[in-house]
Amino acid sequence: MGFLNNVFNTLKGYGNEANDAFVDSQGIRIMEQEIRDADQSQRKAKESLTDVMAEQQRIARKVNDLKASVEEYSVAIGKLLDAGNEELAMETAEKLAELETDLDSNQAVLDSYNEQVKELKKIIKDSAKQMEALKREVAIVKSTEAAQKASEATAAQFSGTNSSLRSASASMERIKAKQQKRKDKMKAARELAKEEDGGDLKDKLAEAGVIGSQSSASSILDRYRKDK
Amino acid sequence: MNKSLEKVQVALAAYNAEEESLFNVTATDIDDISMLTIIREDIEEFAVLVTASDTQLLFNVALFDSAQVIEGQLASLNEMMLTLNIAMPLSSFALTGDIYSIFGAMSVNSEPSQIQEEVLVLSENIMDALEVCQQFLIKA
Predict the structure, then answer these.
(1) ipTM of the prediction
(2) Does A151 touch chain B (CB under 8 A)?
(3) Do A154 and B62 touch (CB under 8 A)?
């Protein structure tokens, strides 16, 4: 099962009315037990691997020795037959048959050891992976729990209770009103500053045509023309 | 306090120095979990709660609980949130227990400027998120 699926199952404990805790603590305990189990199966597999590998090496040496002997006796039989020594060739062939049987059975054992080593290495790798995944799950569940506590803390901070948050729409209206008030205040402050500059009166006089709105090149030229 | 949370505190103090103390940051411990409460001065009713794990910083703002949702509207609200998740800059909607929130998550290796941006954008998303959810909420 994927880790999100596991996490969700742990979190789901919350939905249960009888269980108020957000994170099912039993779920975490189960995961922690699974981590310990995976750890133990890994340790066992490592111990077995050491034993099996020792045995594997012993058998491998034996198989090599047998192979060398089989080779040696095979060559000897050829030479004896060439020399016409049928009797000794027969005796050697009997010994070779014995050796070949021995080699076959030992080779079979070696093959099975090779298989076991492969299998154990896979178990070790898999349980390491599984442990890592479980540890990640526990960490995720715990940090989700932290976020949940954080949410509850915010709720408690403003409503004085853990059971429910203050009304979001009321808060929103209050904030909007406050933000509007601040804007109004800033606008009023700007207007006041303008008035203190006399800007407001000047604007009004210019509007009434009592004072020139602005000195311009043409008004200056007009002034010169009048003087002439 | 947690080293990652300290980093957030330092980043926001630097931001405040430039931006006339926009954020009020306090450290609290609840049970054995340490967290930061960030209150933006113009949205003080919705605090940003920061928690840190080994790998992640989590910034969470509780918006409302399911009791405030108009009866029969939960499914529509949930669907809208899922639809809007991609559109909302840097933040996502979430449901923890019965509390709806918006949150942002980032690596504990984030730069101070990224942390500042995260908090600023998240705090700016608060009013927008509430506004869009308001149609599903019981009027005060």
Answers:
(1) 0.75
(2) yes
(3) yes
Check if B80 contacts A (Cβ < 8 Å): no
Give pTM, 2 decimals.
0.62
Do A147 and B103 lie within an 8 Å CB cutoff?
A: yes
pLDDT in tens, chain B (140 residues): 788 999 999 999 999 888 877 899 999 887 777 889 999 988 888 989 999 888 889 999 989 989 999 999 999 999 999 999 999 999 999 988 788 999 999 999 999 999 999 999 999 999 999 999 999 999 87
Among chain A residues, the shortest Cα distance to B44 is held by A175
Residues 6+ apart with CB under 8 A from A150: B30, B33, B35, B49, B50, B51, B58, B60, B62
| DSSP H or E stretch at residue B40 | strand B33-40
CA–CA dist A227, B4 (Å, integer): 78
- CB of A22 within 8 Å of any CB in chain B? yes
Determine contact: B35 vs chain A, CB below 8 A.
yes
Residues 39-58 of chain B whose Cβ lies under 8 A from any Cβ of chain A: 42-43, 45-47, 49-51, 53-56, 58
| A15-39 pLDDT per residue, tens | 444 444 555 667 778 888 888 888 8
A56 CA: distance to closest CA in chain B (Å): 43
Buried b / exposed e over A113-123, threshold 16 CB at 10 Å, is beebbeebeeb
Residue type, B47: A
Distance between CA atoms of residues A220 and A198, nearest Å? 24
Residue appearing with tokens 């189960």: A30
Calculate how close chain B gets to A181, using CA atoms only, in Å: 11
B20: left (phi over 0), alpha (psi -120 to 50) or beta: left
User: Is there a contact between B128 and B61 (Cβ–Cβ < 8 Å)?
Assistant: no
